[in-house]
Write a structure and sequence with these properties.
By secondary structure, the protein is α/β, with parallel strands linked by helices. 17% of the residues lie in helices and 35% in strands. The chain has two helices and eight strands. The chain has a four-stranded mixed beta sheet, with helices on one face. The protein has a four-stranded mixed beta sheet with strand order 5-8-7-6, covered by helices on one side. The radius of gyration is 15 Å and the shape is globular.
């Protein structure tokens, strides 16, 4: 069926990234192995990970880290409250706001976005109960 099963976010500082996402979203994050690759358990099983740009596990032929430029993939996170509240917390934790909470009529939901301190774009998505 070719189903998307996992997204890994690169970071030069895996321990700081782990602390950022634990604090922001309350996720359980396991080192596998610690400091090299961290599995994120956001609730319904592993769907996200953090990987060290230095070790690049499981890549058998790691390359030198490259500076990011241009557009990056967006990772959407379904949140349990207004995205603007998460955006404010993310900025306090060191993220850069990309856009404030707004309504997307086409999909009947609210969203806001930030770049984490390591350059990964996160979009928080929320649809109020009863919709």
């Amino acid at each position: 069926m070719n189903t998307l099963v996992f997204v890994d976010l690169p970071t030069p500082d895996i321990e700081a990234s782990t602390a950022f996402y634990k604090e922001l979203f309350g996720w359980e994050i396991n080192g596998r192995p610690q400091g090299v690759f961290h599995e994120i358990l956001p609730g319904d099983g592993p769907t996200l990970g953090l990987w060290s740009e230095r070790e690049q596990v499981p890549d058998p032929a790691p390359r030198a880290p490259q500076p990011r430029s241009g557009f990056q993939p967006r990772t959407y996170i379904l949140v349990d409250g207004p995205p603007g509240e998460y955006l404010n917390r993310a900025v306090i934790l060191g993220a850069t706001a990309l856009w404030e909470q707004s309504y997307w009529e086409e999909f009947d939901g609210h969203h806001a976005s930030f770049l984490d301190p390591w350059g990964n774009q996160i979009v928080m998505w929320w649809r109020p109960a009863g919709r």
